[in-house]
């Protein structure tokens, strides 16, 4: 492994064997990165498969030539890998989480809301139809009551009233109501579909922009680090490296490293400075805020499913409501229709019992609120695999918060292995700095 890394980090291969070894290394790296690049574009960014293949096939040969021919490019590319564990890598993973949540959970929420609206639509349709039928029943009752009155009055030959039936203006054709309800349901469905498409398109575009910017920034950050490493001896130069230890031992000044243990750290150690710990805590708090927002969306998904499932089950359990229409018409013996009695005596008719009778009748009707003919899509339960994937990604995100410091140290070690002569200059600079500080004290 050391020999392979030595060949990979050399500016120029020493012989033909190292040249072929370097080519094979770059080819293997290119094949793996090309496959990951295709999967990233097709699965995460949701580009078409032919565009993803075309981009991957165009990117892979260019990457192979760059890695094989350009030594600093190999160093930058090698530093990109640990840089994925820093802030930019977290942005990529966070954008992936957002994409997973929006693509998988948002349509689920909208689907359950549609189910709830379908239940309301079914209840409104059946209840309106039942109410229309009840008005028809009222019309039947009024006509029978009017017939009973007419039969009684017709027995009096001296008085002929007008038609005594109650006149009802009923909407016998309910198609207009159904049409309006159907149009309203279609409009609500179109509005929800437009919102769903808008959210998905916005997140897709935003995710592509964030992903593209993050990848460019990863390359820029690695290039910027290498540029500062090669031009500034003070940049990121506070580590007790093996070259610094060897230099101190050769000059019999090992005590310098012991006395400076509070200001210098070992790149392979687990010790974190106070500034590094505070930075990790701040990043963890920001990541927790993002996690809370994700959990709110997940909770909305479970809440929408619970409401939709309850609405469907309760709608199926709705029983018919019996309605009784009772008409009771009573004529007392004392009154006997006073105005008719006046005409009776005025015309000097025989004083006999007026032929008025009581009317009492009941009519049954049933109000229905649900029907088996209603088309209600079943509620969609939350997908537990989505929550599992998001949870695993956030575990990785929290891990990168505390691994970011070690990722920076690894970047420095990679740069030192690619430019060993410059690393010796940096070790010599740090040694002289410690010597001057020791003499001043």
Automatic annotation (TrEMBL):
The species this protein was found in: Circaetus pectoralis
Top-rank taxon: Eukaryota
Chief subcellular location: membrane
Alphabetized UniProt keyword annotations: Membrane, Transmembrane, Transmembrane helix
Membrane topology: Multi-pass membrane protein
Record domain Dendritic cell-specific transmembrane protein-like: where: 235-431
Residue ranges the record marks as coiled coil: none
Bilayer-crossing regions: 19-41, 47-71, 92-110, 277-300, 385-403
A GO term from the CC aspect: membrane
Record-given protein name: OCSTP protein
Subcellular location as annotated: Membrane
One Pfam family named in its UniProt record: DC_STAMP
